[in-house]
Write a structure and sequence with these properties.
Order of helices and strands: HHHHH
CATH superfamily of one domain: Ribosomal protein S20
Largest sheet: none
Distance between the termini: 73 Å
CATH class of one domain: Mainly Alpha
Number of helices: 5
C-alpha cells in the first residue's frame, strides 16, 4: 500500500479509469466474438454483427481504451474473414405465391385523432424586438453630462541633482 499522498490519489484514479475502460473493452471483445461466430457459421446477418464490432472497436480506440493499431488489426482480421465467408444456402422448397390484394392499413386511433384536428393558426403578431432593433426604433434620449469641477494641477517638484 502506498504511503505517499499523491500515489494514493493516483491509485484511486487508476482504479476508476480501469472500471470505466472495462465496459468498453468488454463490449468490443464480445462484439468481435459474436461477429467471428456469425462469420464462421455463415449466417447472412453476419454483416450486421461485423459492422457492430467495427463500431465498438473504433469507439474503444477513440477513447484510448485500446490502442488504435490494435483496433485496426482486429477490424482487418474480421473483414478478411468476412470476405472469405461463403454464406450457407438455405434449402427450402419454393412455394408458389399467389398475388393477394392488400387492404390499406387503418390508422391507429391516435393518428386518426391527430388527422381530424384542425391545424392551429397563429395570430398575426408583431415580431419580437431584439435589443438592436429597439435601439434603432426608439428615439434617442437627451443625456445630460454632469461636469465636476477639477482641482487645478499642482506643479511637480523636481529634485535637482547635487554635484
Amino acid at each position: 500500500m502506498a504511503n505517499i499522498k499523491s500515489q494514493i490519489k493516483r491509485n484511486r484514479q487508476n482504479n476508476k479509469r480501469r472500471l470505466r475502460n472495462r465496459v468498453d473493452r468488454g463490449a468490443a471483445r464480445s462484439a468481435v466474438k459474436d461477429a467471428r461466430s456469425a462469420i464462421d457459421a455463415g449466417i447472412p446477418e453476419s454483416k450486421a454483427a461485423l459492422l457492430q464490432a467495427i463500431r465498438l472497436l473504433d469507439k474503444a480506440a477513440e477513447k484510448g481504451v485500446i490502442h488504435k493499431n490494435n483496433a485496426a488489426r482486429r477490424k482487418s482480421r474480421l473483414v478478411k474473414a468476412f470476405a472469405k465467408m461463403e454464406p450457407t444456402k438455405v434449402e427450402a422448397e419454393p412455394t408458389p405465391v399467389e398475388p393477394v390484394a392488400e387492404e390499406p392499413k387503418k390508422a391507429s386511433p391516435r393518428r386518426r385523432a391527430a388527422k381530424v384536428e384542425e391545424p392551429k393558426v397563429e395570430e398575426a403578431t408583431e415580431p419580437k424586438k431584439t435589443a438592436a432593433m429597439k435601439k434603432e426604433t426608439e428615439p434617442k434620449k437627451a443625456t445630460v453630462k454632469k461636469t465636476v469641477a477639477k482641482k487645478p494641477a499642482t506643479p511637480r517638484k523636481t529634485t535637482a541633482k547635487k554635484e
